[in-house]
Here is the input.
Amino acid sequence: MTILYSKILLVCNGKAGRGELETQLMEVTPPLLDICDTLTIHKTKDKGGAEKICHDTGNEYDLVVILGGDGTVHEAVNGLAQLSSRPKTAILPGGTCNDFARSLNIPMNLRLAAETIANDFHEKDIDLVKADDRYFSNFWGTGLVSQTSENIDTGSKSVLGKLSYYISAFQSIQDPVLLNASVTADGREYNEEVVMLLAANGRSIGTNPLPESISLQDGLIDLYMVKKTGLPLMMEFFKIRSTGEISSASDDIIHIQASDVTIHLDDVKKVDMDGELYEEQKQNLKVLKHHMRFITGEDK
Here is the structure.
């Protein structure tokens, strides 16, 4: 095997994987050792650990590999995105949903994902979105999105895995919270009462595919303003997933593409960024085009 890198940093969540971290490492380290001179494994112990190690040492490595779920990826990306010189980055799916890894077409099998990195891999310069002083790679959402995340019971997530996301989603739809939102998108203004705002950079949420028309490289985020809920919304949403288009006859969902979006809510609300919850009332989302270089799987 050809040596491709001098130094690789493998960052993993020491508390993730339902106690299976050692098994995961046994799967992924042999292919990585084959392509580098030095492999450093860093197991995070506390929340924020992945962000700190990536920010403090990321520029010392040729490749940073993130082994974990969407929360670990979110932390690591926030550490790396701040660097003036950012290393190439790869993701090994070790969590429940692994949505950003899905958006990058990374195999969900860990061994195959590691071999994707080591063998005939592809590389792409991927957009990130800066949300005030934070970054997200996959999505930003409030209303039904954050309500679903907040309703997930930690214990059921561990036992049921991604099924817990579906259970929480349907519970949230039964009792939606209405939001008054003012949105400015590349100079265009919208004032709407909505049940959900979703700004998508990637193409998967809770393992559910989003429209294939969403691009990680076009310098734009796709903002969906959802004004009604219930069965009609679900039918419309599934149609969007399959076609990438909004029905012209429906005004339940407004779709906006923009590079710079400011969202002002009527009160402080829970906001979900890549599966991590924050509290915000006003936030600016600015696309950083081609901000980080990622190893990807083959285009589907």
Confidence is low (pLDDT under 50) at residues 153-164. The chain has two domains: 5-120, 136-290.
